[in-house]
């Protein structure tokens, strides 16, 4: 069984105690991290290696940043950055081969305030992801594209959908782009396992401490290629992390492959 998780850590150094505790307790085989918010030289590779994980990362000071961790082995880097825009300086995509799987870790632009230039950038980035995803599918390799998509695909993916109508994560264009990926053949693994269930990976920070449960959204996704469809056994979210001390505003989503 191969267990894969994706986690927007919202600052890898600031949340390092949470990350290391979680890695030690869960022992996922492959972990994708987003929003590192650190330059390459400040990535805590030694601390992560200390709990048994090799890592590759694509950092950026104060913003963005993605990493792939592999338990007991070193991820073999295949690419950093999406093709299609040589002028894009954001660290939002990294890809590795781990134990025969092609793993793409992504942090899609948020797009707010929308409409506007940031939303236009989000849609352009999404178009590049869709095109690149088609190349991966065409290769026929066992592939997974996971991370913070900053998209709430359907109404079931929000506790209170109407709260988000003016937010880029819920705009029709964002949801349409996500639907296009599924139409091309990618499988939303968490939704495949839990077709009718309200499952959430993000909650707003609360001014009173803790978090606002009514703000729950599912926008961290693990999309698997059709070649992995028959191997999918389980999926879920480690919700309890959201209640830990100094947590991220996201909780890790995960899948199990046979």
From TrEMBL:
- Alphabetically list the UniProt keywords: Hydrolase, Magnesium, Metal-binding
Say yes or no: keyword Magnesium present: yes
For the protein in the UniProt heading, the enzyme class is hydrolase
Give the residue spans that cross the bilayer: none
**EC number, UniProt record:** 3.1.11.2
What SUPFAM superfamilies does the record tag this protein with?
DNase I-like
**Superkingdom in the source lineage:** Bacteria
Cross-referenced InterPro entries? AP_endonuc_1 (IPR004808), Endo/exonu/phosph_ase_sf (IPR036691), Endo/exonuclease/phosphatase (IPR005135), ExoIII-like (IPR037493)
- Looking at the record, the residues that make up the Endonuclease/exonuclease/phosphatase domain are 5-250
Keyword Magnesium present in the record's keywords: the answer is yes
Cofactor(s) this protein requires: Mg(2+)
Q: Name one GO molecular function term.
A: double-stranded DNA 3'-5' DNA exonuclease activity
The family classification in the record reads: Belongs to the DNA repair enzymes AP/ExoA family.
List the protein's name: Exodeoxyribonuclease III
Q: What is the lineage of its organism?
A: Bacteria, Pseudomonadati, Pseudomonadota, Alphaproteobacteria, Hyphomicrobiales
């Amino acid at each position: 069984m191969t267990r894969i998780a994706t986690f927007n850590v919202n600052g890898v150094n600031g949340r390092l105690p949470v990350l290391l505790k979680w890695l030690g307790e869960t022992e996922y085989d492959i972990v994708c991290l987003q929003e590192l918010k650190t330059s390459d030289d400040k990535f805590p590779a030694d601390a992560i290696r200390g709990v048994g994980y090799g890592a590759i990362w694509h950092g950026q000071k104060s913003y963005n940043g993605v990493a792939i961790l592999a338990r007991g082995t070193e991820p073999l880097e295949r690419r950093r950055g999406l093709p299609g825009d040589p002028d894009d300086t954001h660290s939002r995509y990294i890809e590795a081969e781990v134990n025969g799987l092609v793993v793409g870790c992504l942090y899609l632009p948020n797009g707010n305030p929308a409409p506007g230039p940031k939303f236009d950038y989000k849609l352009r980035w999404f178009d590049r992801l869709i095109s690149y995803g088609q190349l991966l599918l065409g290769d026929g390799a066992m592939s997974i594209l996971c991370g913070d998509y900053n998209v709430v695909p359907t109404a079931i993916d929000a506790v209170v959908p109407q709260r988000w109508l003016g937010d880029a994560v819920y705009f029709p264009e964002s949801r349409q782009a996500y639907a296009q990926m599924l139409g091309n053949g990618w499988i939303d693994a968490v939704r495949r396992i839990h077709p009718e269930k309200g499952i959430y990976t993000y909650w707003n920070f609360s001014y009173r401490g803790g978090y606002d449960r009514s703000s729950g959204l599912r926008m961290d996704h693990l999309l698997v290629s059709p070649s992995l469809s028959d191997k999918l056994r389980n999926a879920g979210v480690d919700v309890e992390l959201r209640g830990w001390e100094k947590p991220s505003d996201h909780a890790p989503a995960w899948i199990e492959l046979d």
